[in-house]
Protein backbone atom coordinates (compact mmCIF):
# COMPACT_ATOMS: atom_id res chain seq x y z
CA UNK A 1 0.00 0.00 0.00
CA UNK A 2 1.18 3.50 -0.71
CA UNK A 3 -0.34 5.00 2.41
CA UNK A 4 0.88 2.37 4.83
CA UNK A 5 0.81 4.82 7.74
CA UNK A 6 -3.00 4.92 7.54
CA UNK A 7 -3.24 1.21 8.34
CA UNK A 8 -3.09 0.13 12.01
CA UNK A 9 0.11 -1.59 13.04
CA UNK A 10 0.12 -4.66 15.25
CA UNK A 11 2.34 -4.29 18.29
CA UNK A 12 4.69 -6.64 20.13
CA UNK A 13 4.11 -7.56 23.78
CA UNK A 14 7.37 -7.34 25.71
CA UNK A 15 7.72 -7.10 29.49
CA UNK A 16 4.08 -6.19 30.00
CA UNK A 17 4.04 -3.38 27.42
CA UNK A 18 2.59 -3.28 23.93
CA UNK A 19 5.40 -1.75 21.89
CA UNK A 20 5.93 -0.67 18.29
CA UNK A 21 8.47 -2.71 16.40
CA UNK A 22 11.48 -1.01 14.86
CA UNK A 23 11.64 -3.55 12.04
CA UNK A 24 11.68 -2.64 8.37
CA UNK A 25 9.86 -5.84 7.40
CA UNK A 26 6.06 -5.79 7.56
CA UNK A 27 3.22 -7.93 6.21
CA UNK A 28 -0.35 -6.94 5.41
CA UNK A 29 -3.20 -8.65 7.26
CA UNK A 30 -5.91 -9.07 4.64
CA UNK A 31 -9.63 -9.79 5.00
CA UNK A 32 -9.98 -12.97 2.89
CA UNK A 33 -13.56 -12.14 1.88
CA UNK A 34 -12.82 -8.64 0.57
CA UNK A 35 -9.01 -8.24 0.22
CA UNK A 36 -9.21 -5.18 2.48
CA UNK A 37 -5.97 -4.56 4.36
CA UNK A 38 -6.93 -4.59 8.05
CA UNK A 39 -3.54 -3.95 9.62
CA UNK A 40 0.17 -4.55 9.22
CA UNK A 41 2.18 -7.01 11.30
CA UNK A 42 5.92 -6.61 12.02
CA UNK A 43 8.57 -9.29 11.65
CA UNK A 44 10.37 -8.81 14.94
CA UNK A 45 14.06 -7.93 14.98
CA UNK A 46 16.74 -9.99 16.67
CA UNK A 47 16.94 -7.45 19.49
CA UNK A 48 13.18 -7.56 20.02
CA UNK A 49 13.17 -11.35 20.26
CA UNK A 50 16.04 -11.17 22.72
CA UNK A 51 14.14 -8.60 24.79
CA UNK A 52 11.06 -10.82 24.92
CA UNK A 53 13.03 -13.89 26.04
CA UNK A 54 15.03 -11.87 28.56
CA UNK A 55 11.82 -10.46 30.01
CA UNK A 56 10.38 -13.96 30.34
CA UNK A 57 13.58 -15.21 31.97
CA UNK A 58 13.53 -12.42 34.58
CA UNK A 59 9.83 -12.88 35.29
CA UNK A 60 10.30 -16.60 35.83
CA UNK A 61 12.35 -15.99 38.98
CA UNK A 62 9.30 -14.58 40.78
CA UNK A 63 6.44 -16.21 38.87
CA UNK A 64 7.69 -19.74 39.61
CA UNK A 65 7.31 -18.97 43.33
CA UNK A 66 3.83 -17.46 43.01
CA UNK A 67 1.37 -19.54 45.07
CA UNK A 68 -0.63 -21.97 43.00
CA UNK A 69 -3.90 -20.44 44.22
CA UNK A 70 -2.85 -17.00 43.00
CA UNK A 71 -2.08 -18.43 39.56
CA UNK A 72 -5.40 -20.21 39.49
CA UNK A 73 -7.36 -17.08 40.34
CA UNK A 74 -5.82 -15.23 37.39
CA UNK A 75 -7.24 -17.82 35.04
CA UNK A 76 -10.62 -17.71 36.74
CA UNK A 77 -10.63 -13.99 35.93
CA UNK A 78 -9.31 -14.62 32.43
CA UNK A 79 -12.06 -17.06 31.51
CA UNK A 80 -14.62 -14.50 32.71
CA UNK A 81 -13.10 -11.80 30.49
CA UNK A 82 -13.04 -14.09 27.46
CA UNK A 83 -16.73 -14.88 27.96
CA UNK A 84 -17.57 -11.19 28.25
CA UNK A 85 -15.70 -10.40 25.03
CA UNK A 86 -16.74 -13.47 23.02
CA UNK A 87 -18.61 -11.54 20.31
CA UNK A 88 -15.79 -9.03 19.91
CA UNK A 89 -13.16 -11.76 19.67
CA UNK A 90 -15.21 -13.68 17.11
CA UNK A 91 -15.68 -10.57 14.97
CA UNK A 92 -11.92 -9.88 14.91
CA UNK A 93 -11.22 -13.52 14.08
CA UNK A 94 -13.74 -13.63 11.22
CA UNK A 95 -12.43 -10.41 9.71
CA UNK A 96 -8.83 -11.60 9.49
CA UNK A 97 -9.26 -15.39 9.07
CA UNK A 98 -12.55 -15.72 7.22
CA UNK A 99 -14.46 -18.41 9.11
CA UNK A 100 -18.11 -17.84 9.97
CA UNK A 101 -18.98 -15.89 13.10
CA UNK A 102 -20.52 -19.02 14.65
CA UNK A 103 -17.38 -21.03 13.91
CA UNK A 104 -15.21 -18.18 15.20
CA UNK A 105 -17.11 -18.28 18.49
CA UNK A 106 -16.49 -22.02 18.55
CA UNK A 107 -12.78 -21.37 17.98
CA UNK A 108 -12.68 -19.05 20.99
CA UNK A 109 -14.84 -21.35 23.11
CA UNK A 110 -12.66 -24.42 22.60
CA UNK A 111 -9.70 -22.33 23.77
CA UNK A 112 -11.76 -21.03 26.68
CA UNK A 113 -12.26 -24.62 27.84
CA UNK A 114 -8.49 -24.96 28.23
CA UNK A 115 -8.37 -21.70 30.20
CA UNK A 116 -11.01 -23.15 32.53
CA UNK A 117 -8.86 -26.27 32.83
CA UNK A 118 -5.83 -24.13 33.68
CA UNK A 119 -7.82 -22.52 36.49
CA UNK A 120 -7.97 -25.96 38.12
CA UNK A 121 -4.18 -26.28 38.14
CA UNK A 122 -4.21 -26.98 41.89
CA UNK A 123 -5.74 -30.38 41.17
CA UNK A 124 -3.47 -31.12 38.21
CA UNK A 125 0.02 -30.25 39.40
CA UNK A 126 0.13 -32.83 42.16
CA UNK A 127 3.08 -35.02 42.96
CA UNK A 128 3.16 -38.47 44.57
CA UNK A 129 4.27 -39.68 47.99
CA UNK A 130 5.26 -43.05 49.33
CA UNK A 131 5.49 -43.18 53.14
CA UNK A 132 8.14 -45.23 54.93
CA UNK A 133 9.86 -46.72 51.86
CA UNK A 134 12.64 -47.70 54.26
CA UNK A 135 13.00 -47.25 58.00
CA UNK A 136 11.89 -43.66 58.63
CA UNK A 137 12.31 -42.75 54.95
CA UNK A 138 9.69 -41.09 52.72
CA UNK A 139 9.92 -40.46 48.98
CA UNK A 140 7.84 -37.88 47.14
CA UNK A 141 7.81 -36.02 43.85
CA UNK A 142 7.53 -32.33 43.02
CA UNK A 143 6.24 -31.11 39.64
CA UNK A 144 8.19 -27.90 39.21
CA UNK A 145 8.11 -25.42 36.29
CA UNK A 146 10.96 -25.64 33.80
CA UNK A 147 11.46 -21.99 32.79
CA UNK A 148 10.85 -19.99 29.62
CA UNK A 149 8.61 -21.81 27.14
CA UNK A 150 7.55 -20.81 23.64
CA UNK A 151 4.68 -21.48 21.26
CA UNK A 152 4.35 -21.24 17.49
CA UNK A 153 0.74 -21.25 16.29
CA UNK A 154 -1.00 -21.55 12.88
CA UNK A 155 -3.48 -19.38 10.99
CA UNK A 156 -6.48 -21.71 11.10
CA UNK A 157 -7.26 -21.41 14.83
CA UNK A 158 -5.79 -18.07 15.92
CA UNK A 159 -7.72 -18.08 19.21
CA UNK A 160 -8.01 -21.73 20.22
CA UNK A 161 -4.45 -22.89 19.66
CA UNK A 162 -2.69 -20.01 21.46
CA UNK A 163 -5.12 -20.75 24.31
CA UNK A 164 -4.03 -24.39 24.17
CA UNK A 165 -0.51 -23.24 24.91
CA UNK A 166 0.21 -20.27 27.11
CA UNK A 167 -2.49 -20.74 29.79
CA UNK A 168 -1.27 -24.24 30.71
CA UNK A 169 2.38 -23.20 30.54
CA UNK A 170 1.80 -20.15 32.72
CA UNK A 171 -0.55 -21.90 35.15
CA UNK A 172 2.15 -24.49 35.86
CA UNK A 173 4.58 -21.70 36.80
CA UNK A 174 6.47 -21.08 33.56
CA UNK A 175 6.77 -17.92 31.50
CA UNK A 176 5.98 -17.80 27.80
CA UNK A 177 6.97 -16.31 24.44
CA UNK A 178 4.26 -16.70 21.80
CA UNK A 179 4.65 -16.36 18.04
CA UNK A 180 1.19 -16.33 16.44
CA UNK A 181 0.60 -16.73 12.73
CA UNK A 182 1.62 -13.63 10.82
CA UNK A 183 -1.51 -14.06 8.66
CA UNK A 184 -4.07 -13.37 11.43
CA UNK A 185 -2.52 -12.23 14.73
CA UNK A 186 -5.08 -9.61 15.75
CA UNK A 187 -7.41 -11.84 17.77
CA UNK A 188 -4.35 -13.37 19.46
CA UNK A 189 -3.21 -9.90 20.50
CA UNK A 190 -6.65 -9.10 21.89
CA UNK A 191 -6.46 -12.28 23.95
CA UNK A 192 -3.05 -11.16 25.21
CA UNK A 193 -4.54 -7.81 26.26
CA UNK A 194 -7.26 -9.64 28.21
CA UNK A 195 -4.63 -11.87 29.84
CA UNK A 196 -2.83 -8.81 31.21
CA UNK A 197 -6.16 -7.40 32.35
CA UNK A 198 -6.81 -10.67 34.18
CA UNK A 199 -3.59 -10.19 36.14
CA UNK A 200 -0.82 -11.98 34.23
CA UNK A 201 2.29 -10.10 35.43
CA UNK A 202 4.72 -8.25 33.19
CA UNK A 203 7.10 -10.61 31.39
CA UNK A 204 5.13 -13.77 32.12
CA UNK A 205 3.52 -13.59 28.65
CA UNK A 206 5.33 -12.03 25.70
CA UNK A 207 4.31 -11.97 22.02
CA UNK A 208 6.57 -11.57 18.98
CA UNK A 209 5.63 -11.76 15.31
CA UNK A 210 7.43 -12.96 12.22
CA UNK A 211 8.26 -15.77 9.84
CA UNK A 212 11.02 -18.33 9.49
CA UNK A 213 13.72 -16.20 11.13
CA UNK A 214 11.67 -15.78 14.30
CA UNK A 215 10.82 -19.50 14.33
CA UNK A 216 14.52 -20.36 14.07
CA UNK A 217 15.41 -17.89 16.81
CA UNK A 218 12.91 -19.59 19.13
CA UNK A 219 14.33 -23.00 18.29
CA UNK A 220 17.90 -21.84 18.90
CA UNK A 221 17.64 -19.54 21.92
CA UNK A 222 19.50 -21.09 24.87
CA UNK A 223 17.12 -19.63 27.46
CA UNK A 224 13.99 -21.24 25.98
CA UNK A 225 13.46 -24.64 27.56
CA UNK A 226 10.43 -25.99 25.67
CA UNK A 227 8.67 -25.34 22.36
CA UNK A 228 5.10 -26.19 21.41
CA UNK A 229 4.11 -26.09 17.74
CA UNK A 230 0.95 -26.57 15.69
CA UNK A 231 1.11 -26.30 11.91
CA UNK A 232 2.23 -28.04 8.75
CA UNK A 233 4.28 -31.22 8.71
CA UNK A 234 7.08 -29.51 6.78
CA UNK A 235 7.55 -26.71 9.31
CA UNK A 236 6.80 -28.92 12.31
CA UNK A 237 9.49 -31.41 11.36
CA UNK A 238 11.97 -28.56 11.00
CA UNK A 239 10.99 -27.12 14.40
CA UNK A 240 11.22 -30.51 16.10
CA UNK A 241 14.64 -31.34 14.68
CA UNK A 242 16.14 -27.91 15.24
CA UNK A 243 14.76 -27.31 18.73
CA UNK A 244 15.53 -30.87 19.87
CA UNK A 245 19.10 -30.48 18.65
CA UNK A 246 19.30 -27.40 20.85
CA UNK A 247 18.32 -29.51 23.87
CA UNK A 248 14.71 -28.38 24.23
CA UNK A 249 11.54 -30.27 24.97
CA UNK A 250 9.40 -30.15 21.84
CA UNK A 251 5.84 -31.10 20.95
CA UNK A 252 4.68 -30.69 17.35
CA UNK A 253 1.12 -31.25 16.16
CA UNK A 254 1.33 -31.39 12.38
CA UNK A 255 -0.45 -32.37 9.17
CA UNK A 256 -3.22 -34.87 8.68
CA UNK A 257 -5.34 -36.85 6.28
CA UNK A 258 -8.37 -37.80 8.31
CA UNK A 259 -10.62 -40.65 7.18
CA UNK A 260 -14.14 -41.68 8.09
CA UNK A 261 -15.49 -45.16 7.45
CA UNK A 262 -19.19 -45.44 6.67
CA UNK A 263 -20.79 -48.84 7.12
CA UNK A 264 -24.09 -49.63 5.37
CA UNK A 265 -25.94 -49.87 8.69
CA UNK A 266 -25.14 -46.25 9.67
CA UNK A 267 -28.03 -43.84 10.15
CA UNK A 268 -28.04 -42.28 6.70
CA UNK A 269 -29.28 -38.73 7.31
CA UNK A 270 -27.25 -38.22 10.50
CA UNK A 271 -24.15 -39.58 8.79
CA UNK A 272 -24.52 -37.38 5.72
CA UNK A 273 -24.97 -34.30 7.93
CA UNK A 274 -21.87 -35.21 9.91
CA UNK A 275 -19.76 -35.87 6.83
CA UNK A 276 -20.70 -32.58 5.17
CA UNK A 277 -20.12 -30.53 8.32
CA UNK A 278 -16.76 -32.11 9.08
CA UNK A 279 -15.49 -31.95 5.50
CA UNK A 280 -16.58 -28.44 4.55
CA UNK A 281 -16.82 -26.51 7.83
CA UNK A 282 -14.15 -23.82 8.22
CA UNK A 283 -13.64 -24.25 4.45
CA UNK A 284 -11.74 -27.45 5.29
CA UNK A 285 -8.99 -25.49 7.05
CA UNK A 286 -8.76 -27.73 10.10
CA UNK A 287 -6.09 -30.24 10.95
CA UNK A 288 -8.97 -32.44 12.10
CA UNK A 289 -11.12 -31.81 9.00
CA UNK A 290 -12.62 -34.90 7.45
CA UNK A 291 -10.93 -35.11 4.06
CA UNK A 292 -11.51 -38.76 3.09
CA UNK A 293 -14.64 -40.90 3.42
CA UNK A 294 -14.43 -44.65 2.84
CA UNK A 295 -17.80 -46.10 1.86
CA UNK A 296 -18.01 -49.78 2.71
CA UNK A 297 -20.19 -52.23 0.79
CA UNK A 298 -23.64 -50.95 -0.08
CA UNK A 299 -22.81 -47.54 1.42
CA UNK A 300 -21.11 -46.92 -1.93
CA UNK A 301 -24.58 -46.08 -3.22
CA UNK A 302 -24.62 -42.93 -1.02
CA UNK A 303 -22.42 -40.73 -3.24
CA UNK A 304 -25.38 -39.03 -4.90
CA UNK A 305 -26.92 -38.29 -1.50
CA UNK A 306 -23.62 -36.91 -0.22
CA UNK A 307 -23.34 -34.59 -3.23
CA UNK A 308 -26.92 -33.43 -2.72
CA UNK A 309 -26.21 -32.67 0.93
CA UNK A 310 -23.08 -30.68 0.04
CA UNK A 311 -25.06 -28.63 -2.47
CA UNK A 312 -27.27 -27.32 0.35
CA UNK A 313 -24.34 -25.53 2.03
CA UNK A 314 -24.15 -21.77 1.55
CA UNK A 315 -20.86 -20.19 0.47
CA UNK A 316 -20.49 -16.58 1.59
CA UNK A 317 -18.47 -14.19 3.73
CA UNK A 318 -18.21 -15.28 7.34
CA UNK A 319 -20.06 -12.20 8.57
CA UNK A 320 -23.18 -13.00 6.54
CA UNK A 321 -26.04 -14.80 8.27
CA UNK A 322 -26.58 -18.39 7.24
CA UNK A 323 -23.09 -18.91 5.85
CA UNK A 324 -21.78 -22.47 6.05
CA UNK A 325 -18.52 -22.15 4.11
CA UNK A 326 -16.42 -18.99 4.29
CA UNK A 327 -13.35 -18.03 2.23
CA UNK A 328 -9.92 -19.58 2.31
CA UNK A 329 -7.42 -17.56 4.30
CA UNK A 330 -5.40 -16.13 1.38
CA UNK A 331 -5.08 -15.84 -2.37
CA UNK A 332 -2.18 -18.29 -2.20
CA UNK A 333 -4.39 -20.83 -0.42
CA UNK A 334 -7.07 -20.36 -3.08
CA UNK A 335 -4.54 -20.98 -5.86
CA UNK A 336 -3.18 -24.08 -4.15
CA UNK A 337 -6.60 -25.67 -3.51
CA UNK A 338 -7.76 -24.89 -7.06
CA UNK A 339 -4.56 -26.40 -8.45
CA UNK A 340 -5.06 -29.61 -6.48
CA UNK A 341 -8.64 -29.91 -7.70
CA UNK A 342 -7.35 -29.63 -11.27
CA UNK A 343 -4.69 -32.24 -10.55
CA UNK A 344 -7.32 -34.60 -9.16
CA UNK A 345 -9.14 -34.46 -12.48
CA UNK A 346 -5.92 -34.95 -14.43
CA UNK A 347 -5.02 -38.03 -12.36
CA UNK A 348 -8.35 -39.71 -13.06
CA UNK A 349 -10.62 -39.01 -10.10
CA UNK A 350 -14.26 -38.26 -10.89
CA UNK A 351 -15.25 -34.69 -9.96
CA UNK A 352 -18.75 -35.24 -8.58
CA UNK A 353 -19.10 -31.64 -7.35
CA UNK A 354 -16.89 -28.74 -8.45
CA UNK A 355 -16.78 -25.89 -5.94
CA UNK A 356 -14.40 -23.64 -7.86
CA UNK A 357 -15.37 -20.06 -8.76
CA UNK A 358 -18.64 -19.82 -6.85
CA UNK A 359 -20.68 -16.65 -7.36
CA UNK A 360 -20.70 -14.74 -4.06
CA UNK A 361 -22.62 -11.49 -4.49
CA UNK A 362 -20.89 -8.52 -2.92
CA UNK A 363 -17.68 -10.44 -2.31
CA UNK A 364 -16.41 -11.01 -5.83
CA UNK A 365 -12.78 -10.63 -4.70
CA UNK A 366 -13.02 -13.22 -1.92
CA UNK A 367 -10.96 -16.41 -1.75
CA UNK A 368 -13.93 -18.72 -2.15
CA UNK A 369 -14.10 -22.41 -3.00
CA UNK A 370 -17.35 -24.22 -2.43
CA UNK A 371 -17.81 -27.85 -1.33
CA UNK A 372 -15.97 -30.13 -3.75
CA UNK A 373 -16.32 -33.93 -3.94
CA UNK A 374 -14.20 -36.47 -5.81
CA UNK A 375 -15.10 -40.14 -6.20
CA UNK A 376 -12.95 -42.94 -7.57
CA UNK A 377 -9.98 -41.68 -5.56
CA UNK A 378 -6.97 -43.98 -5.13
CA UNK A 379 -4.11 -43.80 -2.67
CA UNK A 380 -1.64 -42.85 -5.43
CA UNK A 381 -3.41 -39.60 -6.34
CA UNK A 382 -2.14 -36.20 -5.23
CA UNK A 383 -5.52 -35.27 -3.75
CA UNK A 384 -5.17 -38.26 -1.43
CA UNK A 385 -1.47 -38.00 -0.62
CA UNK A 386 -1.44 -34.26 0.11
CA UNK A 387 -3.28 -32.36 2.82
CA UNK A 388 -5.46 -30.08 0.68
CA UNK A 389 -6.59 -27.81 3.54
CA UNK A 390 -9.67 -26.75 1.63
CA UNK A 391 -13.32 -27.86 1.28
CA UNK A 392 -12.46 -30.93 -0.80
CA UNK A 393 -13.70 -34.42 0.12
CA UNK A 394 -12.20 -37.57 -1.39
CA UNK A 395 -14.52 -40.59 -1.59
CA UNK A 396 -12.99 -44.07 -1.62
CA UNK A 397 -14.52 -47.54 -1.58
CA UNK A 398 -13.85 -50.71 0.39
CA UNK A 399 -15.53 -54.09 0.31
CA UNK A 400 -15.15 -54.75 4.05
CA UNK A 401 -14.44 -52.98 7.31
CA UNK A 402 -11.02 -54.62 7.58
CA UNK A 403 -10.12 -53.44 4.09
CA UNK A 404 -11.07 -49.90 5.09
CA UNK A 405 -9.02 -50.13 8.30
CA UNK A 406 -5.99 -51.35 6.35
CA UNK A 407 -6.34 -48.39 3.97
CA UNK A 408 -6.32 -45.90 6.85
CA UNK A 409 -3.44 -47.61 8.66
CA UNK A 410 -1.34 -47.47 5.47
CA UNK A 411 -1.61 -43.67 5.40
CA UNK A 412 1.42 -42.03 7.06
CA UNK A 413 -0.72 -39.59 9.09
CA UNK A 414 -2.48 -40.41 12.35
CA UNK A 415 -4.34 -37.34 13.55
CA UNK A 416 -8.01 -38.33 13.58
CA UNK A 417 -10.43 -40.90 12.22
CA UNK A 418 -14.06 -41.89 12.63
CA UNK A 419 -16.55 -44.66 11.94
CA UNK A 420 -20.28 -44.37 11.36
CA UNK A 421 -22.23 -47.48 12.28
CA UNK A 422 -24.99 -48.83 14.51
CA UNK A 423 -22.94 -51.94 15.32
CA UNK A 424 -21.19 -51.94 18.67
CA UNK A 425 -19.09 -54.92 17.59
CA UNK A 426 -17.89 -53.10 14.46
CA UNK A 427 -17.14 -49.94 16.44
CA UNK A 428 -15.12 -51.82 19.04
CA UNK A 429 -13.19 -53.72 16.36
CA UNK A 430 -12.43 -50.39 14.68
CA UNK A 431 -11.17 -48.67 17.83
CA UNK A 432 -8.91 -51.60 18.65
CA UNK A 433 -7.40 -52.10 15.19
CA UNK A 434 -7.07 -48.53 13.92
CA UNK A 435 -3.61 -46.93 14.28
CA UNK A 436 -4.68 -43.31 14.73
CA UNK A 437 -4.43 -41.10 17.79
CA UNK A 438 -7.98 -39.72 17.99
CA UNK A 439 -10.93 -41.94 17.20
CA UNK A 440 -14.55 -40.96 16.73
CA UNK A 441 -17.48 -43.36 16.85
CA UNK A 442 -20.36 -41.55 15.15
CA UNK A 443 -18.38 -38.39 15.96
CA UNK A 444 -16.75 -36.86 12.87
CA UNK A 445 -14.18 -34.55 14.52
CA UNK A 446 -13.04 -36.34 17.71
CA UNK A 447 -11.00 -33.55 19.30
CA UNK A 448 -10.97 -34.37 23.03
CA UNK A 449 -12.11 -32.00 25.74
CA UNK A 450 -9.34 -30.52 27.92
CA UNK A 451 -9.51 -33.15 30.66
CA UNK A 452 -7.86 -35.40 28.09
CA UNK A 453 -4.94 -34.63 25.79
CA UNK A 454 -4.84 -34.10 22.04
CA UNK A 455 -3.35 -37.41 20.92
CA UNK A 456 -2.48 -37.28 17.24
CA UNK A 457 0.05 -39.94 16.30
CA UNK A 458 2.50 -41.23 13.69
CA UNK A 459 3.22 -38.67 10.94
CA UNK A 460 0.87 -36.13 12.53
CA UNK A 461 2.84 -35.72 15.75
CA UNK A 462 6.40 -35.42 16.98
CA UNK A 463 7.13 -35.58 20.70
CA UNK A 464 5.59 -37.97 23.18
CA UNK A 465 3.36 -35.55 25.12
CA UNK A 466 0.35 -33.75 23.67
CA UNK A 467 -1.09 -30.28 24.30
CA UNK A 468 -3.47 -29.58 27.21
CA UNK A 469 -4.78 -32.16 29.66
CA UNK A 470 -2.61 -34.24 31.98
CA UNK A 471 0.06 -34.78 29.34
CA UNK A 472 0.84 -31.10 28.99
CA UNK A 473 1.28 -30.72 32.75
CA UNK A 474 4.09 -33.26 32.39
CA UNK A 475 5.45 -31.39 29.37
CA UNK A 476 5.63 -28.06 31.19
CA UNK A 477 7.02 -29.41 34.48
CA UNK A 478 10.13 -31.17 35.70
CA UNK A 479 9.62 -34.07 38.07
CA UNK A 480 11.93 -33.83 41.06
CA UNK A 481 12.09 -36.86 43.34
CA UNK A 482 12.90 -36.22 47.00
CA UNK A 483 13.93 -38.96 49.41
CA UNK A 484 14.09 -37.83 53.02
CA UNK A 485 14.75 -39.21 56.47
CA UNK A 486 14.26 -37.41 59.77
CA UNK A 487 16.01 -39.11 62.65
CA UNK A 488 14.45 -39.44 66.04
CA UNK A 489 16.59 -37.60 68.56
CA UNK A 490 17.14 -40.84 70.47
CA UNK A 491 17.89 -42.94 67.35
CA UNK A 492 21.67 -42.99 67.17
CA UNK A 493 23.25 -45.16 64.49
CA UNK A 494 26.04 -47.53 65.51
CA UNK A 495 27.72 -48.24 62.18
CA UNK A 496 28.58 -46.82 58.77
CA UNK A 497 26.43 -48.12 55.89
CA UNK A 498 28.57 -48.52 52.75
CA UNK A 499 25.89 -50.26 50.64
CA UNK A 500 23.45 -48.60 48.23
CA UNK A 501 20.39 -49.71 50.19
CA UNK A 502 18.51 -47.73 52.79
CA UNK A 503 18.13 -49.44 56.17
Automatic annotation (TrEMBL):
<dbReference type="GO" id="GO:0006574">
    <property type="term" value="P:L-valine catabolic process"/>
</dbReference>
<keyword id="KW-0560">Oxidoreductase</keyword>
<dbReference type="InterPro" id="IPR016160">
    <property type="entry name" value="Ald_DH_CS_CYS"/>
</dbReference>
<feature type="domain" description="Aldehyde dehydrogenase">
    <location>
        <begin position="18"/>
        <end position="482"/>
    </location>
</feature>
<dbReference type="InterPro" id="IPR016163">
    <property type="entry name" value="Ald_DH_C"/>
</dbReference>
<dbReference type="GO" id="GO:0006210">
    <property type="term" value="P:thymine catabolic process"/>
</dbReference>
<dbReference type="GO" id="GO:0004491">
    <property type="term" value="F:methylmalonate-semialdehyde dehydrogenase (acylating, NAD) activity"/>
</dbReference>
<dbReference type="InterPro" id="IPR010061">
    <property type="entry name" value="MeMal-semiAld_DH"/>
</dbReference>
<protein>
    <recommendedName>
        <fullName>methylmalonate-semialdehyde dehydrogenase (CoA acylating)</fullName>
        <ecNumber>1.2.1.27</ecNumber>
    </recommendedName>
</protein>
<comment type="similarity">
    <text>Belongs to the aldehyde dehydrogenase family.</text>
</comment>
<dbReference type="InterPro" id="IPR016162">
    <property type="entry name" value="Ald_DH_N"/>
</dbReference>
<dbReference type="InterPro" id="IPR015590">
    <property type="entry name" value="Aldehyde_DH_dom"/>
</dbReference>
<keyword id="KW-0520">NAD</keyword>
<dbReference type="InterPro" id="IPR016161">
    <property type="entry name" value="Ald_DH/histidinol_DH"/>
</dbReference>
<dbReference type="Pfam" id="PF00171">
    <property type="entry name" value="Aldedh"/>
</dbReference>
Amino acid sequence: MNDSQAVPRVKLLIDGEFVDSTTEQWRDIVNPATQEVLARVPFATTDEIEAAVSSAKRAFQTWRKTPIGARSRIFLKYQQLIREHMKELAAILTAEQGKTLADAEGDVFRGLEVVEHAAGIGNLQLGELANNVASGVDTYTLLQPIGVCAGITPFNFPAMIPLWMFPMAIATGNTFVLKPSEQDPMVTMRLAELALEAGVPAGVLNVVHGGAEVVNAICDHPDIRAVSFVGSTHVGTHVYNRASAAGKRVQCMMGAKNHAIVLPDAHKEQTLNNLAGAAFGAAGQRCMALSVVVLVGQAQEWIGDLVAKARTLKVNAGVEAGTDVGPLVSCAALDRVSSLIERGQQEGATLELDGRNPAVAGYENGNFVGPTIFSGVTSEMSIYREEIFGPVLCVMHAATLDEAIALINANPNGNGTAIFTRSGAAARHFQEEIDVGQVGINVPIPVPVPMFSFTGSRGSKLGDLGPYGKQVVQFYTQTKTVTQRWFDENDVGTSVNTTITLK
